[in-house]
Design brief:
The chain is α+β, with helices and mostly antiparallel strands. It folds into 2 domains: 108 residues, Peroxidase, domain 1 (Orthogonal Bundle), CATH 1.10.520.20; 71 residues, no CATH class. It has 9 helices and 4 strands; from the N terminus they run αααααααβαβββα. Strands 2-1-3-4 form a 4-stranded mixed β-sheet. Helix 8 links the parallel strand 1 and strand 2. Helix 1 packs across helix 7 and helix 2 crosses helix 5. It is globular, with a radius of gyration of 20 Å. The protein starts with a helix and ends with a helix. The model has no long low-confidence stretch (mean pLDDT 84).
């Protein structure tokens, strides 16, 4: 059986092509991010997998969940029936559970076209503006792309930071450094 990435990739490419053709990359990205948030709850996936639910009931349920996110839902599920048809296709093919993977692949395609990269910096304490600017500039040089940076706090880190940019992880945490030092001392 194919893994979710293999299954998600062609769906992401198809909707990316459609969104790009209609100048709706941001709209689709927003809608897919909402879908990713909705489906992050395993209970939603479990509910949608109930065989007694018809495809129409599943679609109505998903659309109702989207309505809680008014900023994008009316645009994403509005007059253009592409999103509804996309959701119907996923439901009919029992692929709703891979929507988060589709969203990830879509965002990578979008970033490539926009020559940008989404970066998450996780640190033990909040970063000040100077630190954010310095990290952003260093990453911009390293990746030769525009940087869209988010920050997170992880109080379990002793110090330093962990930077995630797509498939690249830069672990500059103190814990990582101490683990490396401990390995060196024991060998």
């Amino acid at each position: 059986m194919a893994d979710n990435n293999t299954i998600a990739r062609p769906y992401a490419q198809a909707i990316f092509d459609l969104a790009q053709e209609n100048n709706a990359l941001d709209l689709w990205a927003g809608g897919l991010d909402i879908a990713k948030s909705i489906l992050a709850d395993g209970a939603v996936i479990e509910f949608l997998s109930k065989p007694e639910l018809s495809n129409k009931q599943k679609l109505d349920f998903i659309c109702d969940l989207f309505s809680a996110f008014e900023q994008h839902s009316s645009l994403f599920l509005g007059d253009d029936k592409s999103a509804i048809n996309f959701l119907k296709l996923l439901i009919e093919n029992d692929r709703v559970s891979i929507l988060p993977d589709i969203a990830e692949h879509f965002n990578v395609l979008k970033s490539n076209v926009e020559n940008s990269v989404d970066v998450t910096v996780t640190s033990a304490v909040p970063l000040d503006e100077d630190q954010k600017i310095a990290i952003s500039e260093a990453l911009k040089k390293r990746f030769s792309r525009e940087i869209h940076m988010q920050t997170e706090i992880d109080e379990t880190l002793i110090g330093g930071a962990i930077i995630r940019a797509g498939d690249v992880v830069i672990d500059g945490s103190l814990r990582s450094g101490l683990s490396g030092l401990a390995n060196e001392l024991t060998t």
